[in-house]
Structure formats: structure tokens, C-alpha cells
Amino acid sequence: MSPTAPATAPSVIGLEHVTKQFGATTAIADVSLDVRRGEIFGVVGPSGCGKTSTIRVITGVYVPTEGQVRVLGRDPQHFRASDREKIGYMPQLFVLYPHLTVLENLRFVASLYGLPWKGRRRRLHEVLDFVELTDARHTLANNISGGMQRRLQLAAALIHRPVLLIVDEPTAGIDPVLRGRFWEQFKRLKDAGHTLLVTTQYVSEVAYCDRVAVMREGGVLMIDTPEGLRRQAIGGEVISLRVDAEDTWNAMQLLKRHPLVRDVRRMRNQPMGSLEVYVSDAGAAMPELIQALSTDPTIDMRHAEEYSPPFDDVFITLMQQAERAEAKRHAAEQGVAA
After folding, report:
1. What is the strand order of the sheet 164-168 is part of?
2. pLDDT tens-digit readout, 59-79
3. Which among 41, 61, 59 has a CA at the least distance from the CA of 220?
């Protein structure tokens, strides 16, 4: 599955202050990002936040109203055939031929890319095996499941060994087991040297990415590693502590007074005695907090470990932070106007 080496460029994809407008509607607002060679770069956000519009600017379907786009070192509006051959694109909706078999669809796509007859059969079998569709190769595309149709589209996007794979919401509407298999395949592609840009509305999937852009209302809120996003959301790290239920109040008061503790909260949907302790560095703080709790003989601590809040919670926190910041800016502007 190894791709050909891409043209030399500072990044595989680069967007600088890109805006796309349709009349009075702004689909993308001042977006800047870079996708580095050999990484899985995720773009996450709610429906309508600008993910697909960003993909269409990157692939050259949309011309940006403002800003600059570079993909494999070139403006997509000036792609040559040789540039397009280095890119694989898997759209959000099924766009292959329902009345052709799985294999016939792949043969058709292979012919579009001009894959030579010599080696084409072997390549077809490679991608069918990769997406686990070998047994369904003689089945009409119309008669396979939605998840299998997605895998067929992935095979079509890979048939020509692209350097860059762009995948728009590949796991939308499919079951969690198949979603996990998609990400396993993406990891294998990364390990083989491909660069992947993947959009998703499933926040938990950012854990599979090397870096992530969080989008909201057409703009990029932030770009960071998954762990970096978690730290930005909670302002540090979290320690999960469990004490006896009757010791909850005393433990919270003691911990709140500790200089390393930024905040203490009861864990949601957990029994009394389950606490979240917010600190800057969990590894450094944990032994000191355990020692502090041990000085109070009325508190019986049962468990302590570093805790990683789920990305759904992280995403909600980031959106709330953005909303508060926007409200604050709006209030300040109103104050200046008054």
C-alpha cells in the first residue's frame, strides 16, 4: 500500500486565512491550518460548522473568496493531472455505480486513473483484501450494506496509491464496531506512509488522530494533539480520587486548600466519594495529595489515578469556552458602541 513520494513542500496541505462566502453566507471564516506529511489530521465539529466546505476548498471544488490554499505544493485551482493522481478522495455520500459489482466499480475507477493492465489485477485484489471486501467482489454495489459501500469507496480512493487521502465523514451513521475498523485501516495507511485528512462529527474519534482542528461556525477554534485539546479544555490534568462516602465533604475541603489544586468536583454519575481533582501536573501532584489526605485520620482514601475525561466532555467544554469568549467580546463591543 506504499504511496509514491510527494513533491517537496513545507506541508502536505496548507491553508492561510481562507474564507469562503456564498453571497451573504460565510461557509468558512479565516481558516488557517497545515497538515504535515505522514500524519492523521482530524477535523472535528458539529454538522454545518464548515468541515465539508473546507474539504471542497482543499480539493479545488470551491475557489476561496480570500486566502491561499496549497496542496502538495500547488494551488488546487492549478492542479495538473499528475497532481490529482497523488490524491485520494472519499466523499461523504456513496457516489459509485449501484448496478455494477464491487469489482466492476473498482475496475472502472482503476481505468479512470489509467492503471496499466500489467499489475492491475494484483492491485485490485490488494485493495479488496485491505477493505475486507474480497468475498463480496461479485455482489452488486446496490446489494451490499451501507458500511460495505463506505469500504468500497475507500478502496476506490486507494486504488491508485495516493500520497494524500482526504476522507469526509467516513463513519457517519455506521455502527461503532465498523467505525473502529475504519480507524484501524487509517492507522495502517499512516504506517505505510500515507498522509490522511479525516473529518468527523464523532468527537471520540479524535483520539485516533495525531493532531486535530476543532471547527465552530466556519472557523477553527484551535489545533492541537488530542491530549493538548484535553489540557486546554480542563486547564491542566485531572486526578480521580475515591474516598468513603461519608468522607466526601472533608476530603473536598482539604484538597481545595492544597496549593497544587485548582479545583475539586464530585464526579458526575458516580457514587458519593468519587472526586475529580484538577491540577497542572497529575504525576507531580498525586503523591503530595495522597500524603495530604493521609494526615487526616477521619478520611479513608480508597483509590487514586490520573483521569482522562472523555472527548465528548472535552468538546462540550471547548464549545462552552468559545461561547463565553464570544459573549464577552460582544458585550465589550456593545459597551464601546454605547
Report:
1. 87-90, 164-168, 195-200, 40-44, 211-216, 219-224
2. 999 999 999 999 999 999 999
3. 41
